[in-house]
Amino acid sequence: MGDKSAIEWTDATWNPVTGCTKISPGCKHCYAERLAARLRLMGNPRYRNGFDVTLHPDQLTLPLRWRDSKRIFVNSMSDLFHEAVPEEFIRQVFETMVRAHWHTFQILTKRAEQLLELAPRLPWPSNVWQGVSVENSQHTCRIACLQKVPAAVRFLSIEPLLGPIVDLPLNGIGWVIVGGESGPNYRPIKRAWVRGIRDQCMAAGIPFFFKQWGGQTPKSRGRLLDGRMWNDMPSESSNASPLLSGPLMPSPSGKDLLRKDAVNRRVSGGVMQAQNRSSKRASWDERFFDESRLTSKLKHFILEDYMNRFARHLGSVRKTIYYVDGFAGPGIYRRTTGEHERGSPILIADFAGRLRATNTQFFLKCLNVEEDPGRYRQLEEATAVFSDQIVEKNYPTSFTEALDDILRQIGNAPAFFFLDPFGTKGISFKALLPLFRRTARTEVFINFQTDGIAKKAGWLPSLDDSDRNKRKQAWAQTENPVNALAVSRAEFSSWWAEYVINDNGGTDAFEQRTLQHYLTLLMSSNTKFQFTKAFPVYYYRPDAPPGEDAQVCFHLIFATQNKKGLYEMNDCMVRALDRFYDEEYGHTFFPQFRDLVDKPKDLVRLQGEILTRLHDRIFTVDQLKQRLMQDTAFLIKEGGYRDAVIQLKQTGRLEQLDEGRINNEVTRFRVVNSVPQPVPEQQPLPLC
Prior knowledge:
By secondary structure, the protein is an alpha/beta fold.
């Protein structure tokens, strides 16, 4: 029980009741029973009765003490509608859910008849989702009871799935979860069973969530189905009609409904494309990048362009705007050729100086952090030419140590934070939460060290080495990544084993897993971010052409609270890539780089994504942009999404459901299928 949960489709668990009894085959290897036995042996007083049904009245008001909005799984260690739970106690649980209106409560039961009997005598606020557990076709009768319950969202948990369910009754159902059994005596799940249920959900336009394949542990075989994650979540009232899931469908109760599944996305464009490579890294021409600093140039192109738009947009409403460089470096880099190159602190300070020279009505101020004493001295020298109104302060310490003072310094001013690099440095995700929880306009641009994390993860097998020195070194090497990712070593090791040791996508798939996990953290209820975008930056070998098969050096991750920020950063990345190809590679040994900037080809790819991903959805152009800008790996300017919709409409592949000129935020579309479907009566979809 607690305000955090490892269950993928919820945020927290609340157990005013513990204990249960078995009533059907799905109960045979009950995880809660095993856990209760362990907790009893550990002396946990709440399990002094083992797995006998036990009421905990002191826990009834627990959710009222959780002020941040959460999805809460009610009675993960019991069944609220067990015959041994008094009706009055169930009513008290519901009263708490009514009072805690900022949370979303998820209830599951196998006792559907008891649920149906009590339902008319219980309050059903819009923040209560009711589900039933169904393990095989013999127990779909529970669904008929659920369909008569007046819950805002009615859902099915088909876990453990023990057999095929051919005709799943989905009328009035708003969400379906499927999972395999885990534990020492798990019963294997078949891929065809899962696909069958997924296909029924897609045909009915119902969000589908695939939780796990199961095995000895819940994570033994991962969560990929046909090369991608399936993490659709329901909207606030999704029992009646198919709507877009994920980042496009926030509920009135807050952003939590859109967060977790807004992130799964990248795996469909990442792990699915991953090659079965070994964990041994290729040999790259490091000197080429040391001398030309090409990867730095690309991120600097993006940074310069975006800061111009960030400052001018927010400067129209705020007098002071801050740029914070968390790993500033020396400010000026001296190449082996003798040339000097400006680092990010000097690039942005120069820009701030140019803004001052144009007599703008706002100030862009810079705060820089550099822990290394030698680099800090160089940074002080490089920034000495700027006034205190431009470079307000340089901190000679670590970013985490400086963060409290930085947050006091900037107050409620809009701020852009550049954290470069991240993942292999000694900085934990937890230490960054005060930054990520800012309510004032906050955006972060993170150089996420994908390759560096993978290299350090290569030490994981040595954690069990017989050599004490190797174990110690492995522990030290993996310390920073596990802190940065806020993950246990055991879970971090399970990713490595699943993808690399078991040759299930190799290092590429492992890197995508770490990336997806970090994006999930950025969009969790612990932060204020609503949108993220990950942009891969590749290594390239002098003897091989560029392309997506090249090894990823790092990802540039952008997180923002505002959809306009997402749109602007997307366009800045497109422009930066064009400039990068033109200035750096267009006249060098990689002329074929220009082939990667193929706008007509990208437009065709975008149209294919629309037809594939949204084939059973109703959407607006604005929702389309928010989903695919975050979901897909390729880059297309914001206007290209509207162009793609217009072209698909002109060719008869999309149907416009609302008359008049296209309004990006209101006009609805759907993919034209071979069998015409009636236009649902509904209001325009809520916007982010």
